[in-house]
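Blackboard transcription, Thursday session:
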Amino acid sequence: MTQQRIRGVLSPVVTPFNRDLSPDPQRFIAHCRWLLTQNCGLAVFGTNSEANSLSVNERIALLDALLAADIDPARMMPGTGCCALTDAVRLTEHAVKAGCAGVLMLPPFYYKDVSEDGLFRSFAEVVERVGDSRLRIYLYHIPPVAVVGITVKLVERLLKAYPSAIAGMKDSSGDWSNTESFLKAFGKSGFDVFPGSESFLLAAMRNGGAGCISATANVNPAAIDRLYREWQKADADMQQEALNVVRKTVGQYVMIPALKQVIAYYSDDAAWTAVRPPLTELNAMQVHNIIEGLKKLDFDMPGLNRTQAKAA
Amino acid sequence: MTQQRIRGVLSPVVTPFNRDLSPDPQRFIAHCRWLLTQNCGLAVFGTNSEANSLSVNERIALLDALLAADIDPARMMPGTGCCALTDAVRLTEHAVKAGCAGVLMLPPFYYKDVSEDGLFRSFAEVVERVGDSRLRIYLYHIPPVAVVGITVKLVERLLKAYPSAIAGMKDSSGDWSNTESFLKAFGKSGFDVFPGSESFLLAAMRNGGAGCISATANVNPAAIDRLYREWQKADADMQQEALNVVRKTVGQYVMIPALKQVIAYYSDDAAWTAVRPPLTELNAMQVHNIIEGLKKLDFDMPGLNRTQAKAA
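(Written on the board underneath:)
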């Protein structure tokens, strides 16, 4: 892993599927390439990537496809947290050996009401078993989905035990006061806090945040990256407001199928719409409402087109 | 799979681990053999088996170890539901080819608030992809853990589409009125409802239930099986009460490590106590309280001993 920590805007890259619902590495590579041209890092295999709907072997094959396509691992933060310790170790080890900037790690999320000791031990086992000084873990707090969450006390214990491996977190609680409490507790210790939505990007940057890792960065990366770079400028609040309107428009129904519909529309490539169950595609009326809403905002995805997807 | 449906008492068999937390097939085989001597079926890879803390390969290797030890697949209902469609298909296919009586299938449990359509499609894809007339699926409803649950309407749709493959359910809601609503809706259609605790065994049998699949059957199988066979006898309510007292004693702390402590104690084999994170072992005081409580009830696990575990 690189010496310089990964910061800025990252996208939990949506995963394209073939008609038989197998992952489609060519469209995946094309989308990752486009995101990099927008200065957007690659948090592949996140919640919005339907990563937990993929087997471990499918995730490894997709990461290998990106590497084979010469996509820079220093711009990647793959998700590697699983319910099974052995799966989390295998994915994390693979990412570290590939030279990824870091890994975004869910806690094991099947059992609920587990103890802080149990969660500490879960992450500790991964660090010890991977046993590589290049490992940089970003803890993934997303209680609306995983239910099992990351607490300030857990981070304190992990940082004390593994100050080099525990590099930061993504906070997808959707609760700014929670993000703020982590920024206050660890902001000065070099622990990087990324809110899980660009809605909190400006607030995070004003309080020592590291950027954001956001679903909407799949479709609106340039504007989000602009606020990341220009948060001290006079129009920062207006930029934030513009980001919020796009997010609200895309996210008015279920986010993952919506992102795929937006990519399908702007790349003129209907294959992008497929999702794996238990998710379902949006209906025609929902798609219409999203696209009409985006048109009213003069939204565009410059550089994303059918030719690029096909050429990958 | 056999023509005759599996019924009666099944145990979500606890999974023993070696010191390095790898699964221990020898102790697993020994415990399965003992359960069969108690007339208890093998719902291997359930919640109490820490199955979601195991990789797919680890589960396949353990099932293969049971088969290699000549343990009858007609007495098995392995858990095969996973977040990833491809994992669920692989495990289900393996179980069907092995001749297992059925599979106990969690819904994909990472995404929350998914639609009935999405869940229907999840199970439908497994049925279609496995494409084997021997497949018997038992839907697994355990909202306290998986959060994502099984509804009456979902069962109706699945039964209509796949009347042979959809064989029944396990209801671990802990809510008798929920179990009752499934018994009323489907009891006469040959859809077998198993409550997820022996606390509801008598009530279930009086309302057309198929038996029970219960954690405590790992340690108290004979008494639970006796009530299953004798539910129409005069002392059935007393039997039920006696089962409840044992369950309350074992389950006064966290159930999985407690079951392992009880097995360790009665087999005089401390290796049984290991759990995978995020679970943690009970402390000495908790173990003491459970064992003392069981002794007061004259509880025993006849036939389970160190020699048997070693000899397996």
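Lecturer's comment: Chain B is about 45% helix and 10% strand.
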